[in-house]
């Protein structure tokens, strides 16, 4: 299977194509028989294999392709050899894919059967919440505005400073309970710094007082439970989040690996 096809198919299945690109892709699939054949092969390979394994397979195939020796034939020999057809090239990729899959299958099956530790699952799925709350512009007076100062540190991934600034803000009467999203980002920073128990308390408090970002806060609360190996509480939240559009797929994958 050609790399250009793999990239296109990956983007299609991962939802990275725009609506216009997706429509164009599906129309092209109807008119290009070779692409349709490659797409069917891709779907067959994808069935029953975790997507992360497919990415590894793609890399293996590309490395395998690059390792093939480039042989230059003498002119009087070369003209007697028929060029490899597109179909035959595709068959070579199918054979290469089969070889790689056979070599990986035992390890893959073993890996999929083994439950992952809660901490490993946390590391695989946690990303700090993106700052969508405070817009920071060049020239802002960070000394005069504690929110800007806090979120500037947060965006710079200086979570220690960000946590200190968030806690200072929450302790001031003029900000107390008026900016619940500060709690949300404080919890995210605490998770990034490995302070799972503190983040759990923070997100539980956030869920008590806020009407916004409820699903997202429950996701980060589940991440805190995983980080602290509180599997039962994480499982309950993840089962709820499995029904959500934003986190359904990730929650389902974590639950399968916890079993």
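^ structure tokens above, recovered residues below v
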């Amino acid at each position: 299977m050609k790399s250009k096809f793999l990239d296109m198919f990956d983007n299609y299945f991962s939802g990275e194509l725009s609506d216009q690109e997706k429509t164009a892709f599906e129309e092209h699939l109807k008119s290009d028989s070779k692409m349709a054949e490659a797409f069917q092969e891709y779907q067959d390979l994808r069935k029953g294999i975790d997507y992360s394994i497919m990415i590894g397979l793609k890399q293996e195939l590309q490395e395998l392709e690059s390792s093939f020796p480039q042989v230059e034939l003498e002119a009087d020999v070369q003209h007697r050899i028929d060029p490899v057809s597109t179909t035959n090239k595709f068959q070579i990729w199918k054979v290469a894919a089969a070889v790689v899959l056979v070599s990986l299958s035992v390890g893959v099956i073993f890996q999929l059967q083994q439950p992952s530790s809660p901490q490993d699952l946390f590391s695989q799925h946690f990303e700090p919440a993106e700052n969508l709350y405070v817009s920071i512009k060049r020239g802002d007076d960070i000394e005069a505005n504690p929110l800007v100062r806090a979120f500037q540190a947060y965006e710079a991934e200086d979570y220690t400073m960000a946590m200190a600034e968030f806690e200072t803000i929450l302790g001031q009467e003029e900000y107390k309970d008026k900016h619940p999203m500060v709690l949300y980002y404080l919890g995210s920073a605490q998770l990034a710094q490995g302070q799972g128990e503190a983040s759990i308390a923070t997100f539980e408090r956030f869920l008590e007082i806020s009407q916004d970002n409820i699903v997202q806060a429950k996701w980060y609360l589940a991440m805190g439970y995983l980080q602290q190996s509180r599997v039962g509480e994480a499982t309950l939240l993840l089962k709820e989040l499995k029904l959500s559009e934003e986190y359904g797929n990730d929650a389902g994958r974590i639950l399968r690996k916890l079993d």
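The first helix runs from residue 3 to 13.
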